[in-house]
Every structure is written in C-alpha cells, then in structure tokens.
Amino acid sequence: MNKRREVPGIRPYDGPAGGWGALRATAKAVHQQMEIVEAPVLLLRTNQPTGFDCPGCAWPDKEHRSTFQFCENGAKAVTWEATSKRVTPEFFAEHTVSSLLKLSDFELENFGRLTHPMAYDAASDKFRPIEWEAAFERIGEALRGLDSPDQAEFYASGRASNEAAYLFQLFAREFGTNNFPDCSNMCHEATSTGLPQSIGIGKGTVSLDDFDHTDFILSIGHNPGTNHPRMMGTLHEAARRKVPIIVFNPMRERALERFADPQNLVEMATYGSTDIASTYYLVKAGGDAAALKGIMKALLALEAERGGVLDHAFIAEHTQGFDALAADLQATGWADIEKESGLRRAELEQVAEAYARSTAAIVTYGMGITQHNTGTANVKLIANLLLMRGNIGKPGAGICPLRGHSNVQGNRTVGISEKPTQAFLQRLEQVFGFTPPQAHGHDAVKAMEAMADGSAKALICLGGNLAVAMPDPQRSFAAMKQLELSVHLGTKLNRSHLLVGKQTFLFPVLGRTELDVQAGGPQSITVEDSMSMVHASAGKLKPASEHLRSECAIVAGMARATLPGSRVDWLGLIADYDRIRDLIERTVAGFDDYNRRIRVPGGFRMPLPPTERQWNTATGKAMFSVFAGVRERYEPWPDDVLRLVTIRSHDQYNTTIYGMDDRYRGVFGRRDVLFMNAEDLAAHGLEHGDLVDIETVSSTRLLRMENITAIEYSIARGTVAAYYPEANVLVSLDYIDQESGTPSYKSIPVRIRRAAGQGGVSEAA
Ligand SMILES: Nc1nc2c(c(=O)[nH]1)N[C@H]1C(S)=C(S)[C@@H](COP(=O)(O)OP(=O)(O)OC[C@H]3O[C@@H](n4cnc5c(=O)[nH]c(N)nc54)[C@H](O)[C@@H]3O)O[C@H]1N2
Ligand SMILES: Nc1nc2c(c(=O)[nH]1)N[C@H]1C(S)=C(S)[C@@H](COP(=O)(O)OP(=O)(O)OC[C@H]3O[C@@H](n4cnc5c(=O)[nH]c(N)nc54)[C@H](O)[C@@H]3O)O[C@H]1N2
Ligand SMILES: [Mo]
Hints:
disordered C terminus, binds ligand MGD, binds molybdenum atom
C-alpha cells in the first residue's frame, strides 16, 4: 500500500465505537455547557420512569433493565439544552441581525438559551424585547389580515410534545388551514406514505422485546452509533447472542462494525468490544431497491429449489399481490441488479440464504432508504421482503423504521398532517363545534415553494430550523425574507430566526429538562417513541429564564389573540394539561384512558393492528407491491456522474452543530470534506486531500459547492458523501420522491472537478 499523504484533521479511527471514548466525550459535553454539579443528577433522570424524555432520539427506553439510560449523544442533547449560557436582550442590543447572519450555525446556537420574547425592529436591524401579550396581539392581527387562512404555514419540528402539537393543529384548523409542513416531510414521510399501503399503518411494528427473540437483523441505511446510540445496546446484545446482523450501507460506519458497550463492565475493564455486523455490504447509494429485489429474487429461487422458504399459509390468508411481485422479480435481470446495487449476485444470494434459515427477522432502516426519489417504493420493498416469510405480526419479527426527532411520531399521531383523515376532521367538528378545513394543505416542499412564489405570507414554527433543513438555501432563504410574518418558538438562536420578514417574533420556550408550572401546578407532557410507546415526561430544572413559557402556553396565547370567537377554552387547557389529553382522547383513536395510563411507569402502547395481523388497507390484506425496474426515477446519468449522499456527523443534531469532530469517521476539527472511494479519486485524477468543486447535474439552475477537501474513505464506488446542512446548496427543491414529497437528500447526482482555484494540500514532511 502506498503511503497516504497527511491531511489536516483526517486521522483514521481504529477503536470500537462506544467505550471509553464515548464516556470521555460525555464528560467534555457536560463540561463545555453546564455547571458540573447539576449534570450527574440531570443525566441520571434522562429516560427514567419519573424523569424527562431524552430529546436526543426516538429509540425507546429499556425500563428496569439498566439504571443508566443515557448515551453520549443523548448527553450532548441534554447538556446543549441545559447549558448555562444565555442569549439576553442585552446580547441582541449589541448585535444587528445582519452581523449575526455572518456567523456559523455552530456559533449561533452556542451563544446559549434564549431568555426573552423578542420582536424584530427593521429600523435598527435588531431584535428588541416585547411583552408576550403585545406580541400575541400583533400576530393575531397579522394572521386575521391575510386574504385566506391558506396563506399561513404552520411548521412543526418533532420535538414538541403531544400536547403542544395537538394545540398547534387545533389552532391552525380553527383558523382554517391544513398547511402543516413538518420535519417528517423531510425525514420518514416515505414510511408514513408507504407502510399504510403495505401493512395498513405508517409506523414500525416491532418492540424492544422482539429484539430479544429475533434471529436475523437486516440493517439498511442508518447509523445508530451516532443517531440512535441507545439502539447500540440492543444490537450489542443481539450480536452477543450470535444473531446475524447484515448491514447495507454505502459507508463503513464504525459502530456497525465494532462496539464497546459503556454499560458492559467487562468490556470496559478489558478494553474489549463486540463485532456487530456479521456481514457488511457497501451498497451503492440508491442501490437498495436493486439489492432488495435481488434478495427476493434469490428467495424465490430457493423456494423453487427446496421449498419451505416462503410462508405460503401467511401469504394466502393475509396478503394480496404476490403473483405480480413474483412475475416482476422473474423479469428483473441479475445484470441490472448487480450494476445498480454495486453488489454481486452471490452476495445477495448469501443474504437470501441467511434470511431463509431464520425463524423471526427484523429489518431496521433510516434515512438511507427514505431520502431518495423512490423513498416510498423502497419502504414498500422492505415490507415485501418481510411479508414473503410472514415476518410481521409474530414475536421477534417486524419492520423497524428509526425515527428522527424524539416525538415526531407522536406529532403525527395527534394531527400534525397536511392530509388529515376524514374521521379525524369529523371528530374535531363534533367535539369543538367548528368545521375544520377539508382541503389538503402544504407539506414542507410545497410550503417552501408557496413562500418562494409569494402565495404564502405567514409562517409559524413550532421549533426547528426550517430554512436550513430544507434543500436549496439560495431559494429557501430568500423565501423566508419575503414573509409578512414569521414566528419562531425555539430554545436557541438559529439561522431561520434571522431570516427576518416584515414582522418576525422569537419566542423562548421551556425545554424538556425544565419544570413547567401552570395555574394548576407542575405539568408533565407526553411523547410517543419509535415503537409507539406513549409516556409522560417532566423536567425538574429551574427554567433558563423566568420569562420562558411552555410551547402549549405560547400556542394558546397566539390562538386566543387570533381567534376572538374561538370555541376552545385555551386558558383552561393551559392551566392543566390533563384537559388537553382529555381532548386528544376524545378526538384521536387509541388514547383511551390517556391520563390514567400515562401515570403508570413506562406508559402504554398505541394500537398497532399489524402486530395482530390485522391490516387496515383498502383490501383488508397486507399488500405486496411492485417496484418496476431497479432504478431511481431520474436515472440513468452518464457514467462520470457520482451519487452524493448528505449525512450527519457524530457531533451534530440535524442543523445543530455541537462540535467540529466526526470521531468514528476519523474527521476532526472540520466539516468541509467529501468522502470518496479510492478508485473514484484515481479515476478523477485526484489524490486524498485534493480540493474539489461539486456541481449538481439534476438541476436546471447552477448548484455548486466549492473548495471541498476530497478524502479517501471506505465508501461504495460511485457514491460520495458530504455533511448536511452545508451540502444543501447542492439539493434542488423539486428533486423529491413524488409519492411522499421527501427531498432526495441521499441521491444527488453530481460531477466533481479539481477545484478551480487551486488544488491540494501541501505534502507533510
Ligand atoms: N446525535 C444525533 N441523533 C439524531 C440526529 C442527529 O442529527 N444527531 N437526527 C435525528 C433525526 S431527525 C433522524 S431522521 C435520525 C437520522 O438517523 P440516520 O437515518 O442514521 O441518518 P443519516 O446520518 O442521515 O444517515 C444514515 C446512514 O445512511 C447511509 N446511507 C446514505 N445513503 C444511503 C443509501 O442510498 N442506501 C443505504 N443503504 N444507506 C445509505 C449513510 O451512509 C449513513 O450511515 O437520527 C435522529 N437522531
Ligand atoms: N441535506 C440534508 N438535509 C436534511 C436531512 C439530511 O439528511 N440531509 N435531514 C432532514 C431531516 S431527517 C430532518 S428531521 C430535518 C430537521 O429539521 P428541523 O427539525 O427543522 O431542524 P433541527 O435542526 O432539528 O432544529 C433545531 C432547532 O430546534 C430548536 N429547538 C430545540 N429544542 C427545542 C424544543 O424543545 N422546543 C422548540 N420549540 N424548539 C427547540 C432550536 O432552536 C434549534 O435551533 O432536516 C432535514 N434536512
Ligand atoms: Mo429526521
């Protein structure tokens, strides 16, 4: 092997994921953000029956199995919120919005917690403090002044509680619109669209217990060591039981290879670790459909050869569409499958063989499946694979989408949807006595387009950082600045807050970790995790400032000021969140006895009919579906076009950048890199460390990112990777999965050239 040149900040990471490195990083996160005395107590309360829900991710809690239920990245999320740094009116008095816009996303959030309600003042280009009620009045006036309620967009990022999300949708619907762009539209919308077609509900079907009973796990397109670290404990246990864990991912992710469980005393004491993946396939980005079809095709061949592979009884009794699927698989050629997936037939046959031998299988998946222009179809292929062997609705088996935000699933359950069901709208009408709007509203892409073309004039954001999370900042930033009204409920300052419109308000909210006291006393909120468990969460910390309000209270305040004749007793609801939960129970199915059941430690599970083999599809059966061909919709591109995927580093939470390292991928102190396969580097006449420019091929407008350092990495040929959100300049707003509206953040066709300026870093001595 020839010696690689030294590139600043790029050092291969040789250890396992987790282990002492994770504990050290936890200590550092705590040290940088908060008073050391509070931290241990706070972190011990994360995800405990009497504590608060970790805002990190939506992986469920392992009640009663371990008393130490937080992880490195959970600790970063918690300490980032519980920081002792503050953004006060004095801070805003010293900084114009224009000057703040020049700072990085990391710098903006790192200033600390917002402390006061603020309003933008155009004359001074500064945010100034404003009284809560005065702000609500001005918002109400602006909203009532619109020509139509559909000129307003109500964005939700999935951190809000069920209670806040429910009030938010109630406010918007009584006001008169179904415009609910949400983070889910950029995330698991393909799951919410695809799974109901396949199995009758847009949610995962497994529980943590199923992981104890499974004997086969297929992990596709997610990076749990960083994004769902508590899942590593579960995978670690399965690996130690010798359950085959087969990974499909274009990048080598260390945690999926080797992991040391910080909860495992022996591993920690001996510096040991456990191999996680039994086999790791570097599938090409966007090649999963081909790979999944290859596995299914091989499965049919095994059935023909020796029988007993398919679950015929299940297929006959519970499904429809198998013959069409089988015919399509016969018609799909191996050459296409191999070319598109980048994997060999023999490899896919091995996966099929292992799957055929299993008695109960789980498929886990994340953004590597959904953020493609065939995202919905990809999800349905995963359902096909499981249905072929009856792997839904039996112990140890099922489908496991890894959700994003800690309560994104709950937000959807309680009504944050631009496509509400008739049944839900009727219940709202019966219970509240107003007629909710019937027409479907805007999802995130449509909302941004409406803001860009001027047809949407107001935007209310229940959390999040919409403009930075969305594709094409050139368009989306400009769209934000055209608004007549923008309102942001947030914990920390971010770029979307600074893209001010004619009137812009910034409302500081109580976080998960903080005590929420209302007229009726201390309140708790509820959330639903990835496995449909609903449980209560109550913070105990003193709020970051006495001026903070809860998300529920702020939504109610805006609603009262906007809707003078409202049918809703907003003040009464805020006094005691039990009353909000009573209304949820009366309008959303599955919340029977809500207030009693959340008082039981661990909470309760929402109904999941597929676990009982009941299928709420149009036919009453689970449905096989056909994925025509093997390609993504926009293929084929010429051969020199690479596929760019945008990924999260280990030190970030979506648009929140905690730090500049990506430890497990060996990147330190920088984010301006492009991960490339050695052969692709060579084919482009490039070397590890050379500077390149990247250009998007699928866009009619020039989308370009300059002076990125190309680094050699173990990544599938033809696939390159860069960090989100920086690489959003390369994603065009209309490059989406047509079925679900999800932007194709992980299949951007690009060309790469040596940087126009000059290339390379100097050779190290
Ligand atoms: N610490 C932390 N936790 C988080 C988040 C965070 O930013 N930080 N974000 C939260 C949110 S909102 C979400 S949605 C989840 C995201 O969790 P993940 O789904 O794990 O998210 P990503 O980092 O986007 O990348 C997923 C993985 O997909 C792979 N991949 C990319 N393209 C393809 C493909 O075409 N096929 C396959 N098979 N794999 C592919 C990438 O190499 C990467 O390993 O995590 C949640 N939890
Ligand atoms: N290129 C590319 N783009 C992507 C993705 C990708 O993989 N690649 N992933 C997409 C995905 S999966 C998602 S989910 C979206 C994320 O999109 P968003 O959910 O909009 O973004 P976040 O970065 O999670 O939002 C961060 C902000 O939330 C606020 N916040 C934090 N905690 C709270 C709280 O408790 N309450 C309130 N009210 N506010 C709070 C803070 O002000 C913080 O600045 O991005 C999407 N964009
Ligand atoms: Mo997400």
